[in-house]
Recover the amino acids of this structure.
């Protein structure tokens, strides 16, 4: 017999992802804190560099800033709660807190895909339609694309979380470090057909965006073979974009597949690593990849740091 449905607003979920981590919590806390602070540092450094340098006020760099802002949101949806739980004796989260975490996590996921799609469109216009680029990618168009990125992503998330919030639940144990939509839906004791259908709609949406990116890259590769300048532009701006897409997609696929088909008897540390990879790796790697590969950003960051080191030296 199933337990009676729980009155959702009064539910306190128990997060079981840290059950096997009692002995090394201080080490995990230190590693998580350093990782979070470094993620914030590299993303903020890139954002500030682009904002302060007028020569970097180009569409591709503004889209990159948006990607970094989204990365900070994604990391901040995971690390603060993890750091708190590593120091706490009980690992619980309220129903409203769980839905809020789901909302931020999935907004990050959808915004990442949409941002990468917009960046692919920008690179397509810059390399394949260079004569039309300035006329098409105006400040107004850039603002519209950024608004579309966040508006579309938030709409996808609001609908999904709204469907989940209507479900009566018959459990309160979540076998993860953080709340995810799938883990909460699995606790439902009612029909979840609507949630499943909407999940397929979201999957189609993300696959469609991935398809658009791949189509644009087919054109980009063809165009980059025509001249050396196009090849250099492709390597500097498109290659990091492709690496970013692959890292994020692979991380997300790992989490999705393991949530549904992974063995619950596997090592807890392995489960945690696979579950959190898409929230840890892309926000950390994205600004590093772009910062190293884009000469304008790299030279400006090095110039800023060298200038600060010179000013800090004592004058004789």
């Amino acid at each position: 017999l199933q337990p009676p449905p729980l009155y959702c607003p009064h539910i306190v979920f128990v997060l079981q992802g840290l059950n096997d981590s009692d002995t090394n919590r201080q080490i995990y806390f230190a590693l998580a804190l350093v990782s979070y602070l470094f993620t914030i540092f590299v993303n903020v450094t890139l954002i500030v560099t682009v904002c302060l340098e007028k020569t970097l006020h180009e569409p591709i760099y503004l889209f990159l800033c948006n990607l970094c802002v989204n990365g900070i949101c994604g990391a901040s949806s995971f690390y603060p709660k993890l750091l708190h739980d590593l120091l706490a004796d009980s690992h619980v989260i309220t129903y409203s807190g769980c839905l809020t975490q789901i909302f931020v996590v999935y907004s990050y996921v959808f915004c990442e895909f949409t941002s990468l799609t917009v960046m692919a469109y920008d690179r397509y216009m810059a390399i394949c339609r260079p004569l039309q680029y300035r006329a098409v990618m105006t400040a107004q168009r850039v603002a519209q694309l950024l608004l579309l990125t966040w508006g579309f992503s938030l709409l996808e998330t609001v609908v999904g979380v709204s469907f989940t919030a209507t479900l009566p639940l018959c459990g309160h144990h979540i076998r993860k470090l953080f709340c995810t939509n799938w883990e909460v839906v699995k606790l439902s004791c009612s029909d979840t057909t609507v949630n499943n259908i909407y999940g397929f709609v979201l999957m189609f949406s993300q696959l469609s965006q991935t398809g658009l990116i791949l189509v644009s890259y087919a054109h980009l590769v063809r165009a980059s073979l025509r001249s050396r300048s196009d090849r250099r532009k492709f390597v500097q701006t498109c290659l990091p974009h492709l690496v970013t897409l692959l890292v994020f997609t692979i991380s997300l696929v790992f989490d999705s597949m393991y949530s549904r088909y992974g063995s619950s008897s596997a090592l807890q540390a392995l489960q945690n690593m696979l579950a959190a990879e898409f929230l840890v790796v892309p926000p950390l790697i994205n600004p590093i990849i772009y910062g190293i590969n884009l000469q304008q950003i790299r030279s400006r960051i090095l110039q800023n740091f060298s200038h600060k080191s010179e000013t800090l030296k004592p004058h004789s």
Notes: The chain has a mean pLDDT of 83. The longest strand covers residues 12-15. The two ends are 82 Å apart (CA to CA).
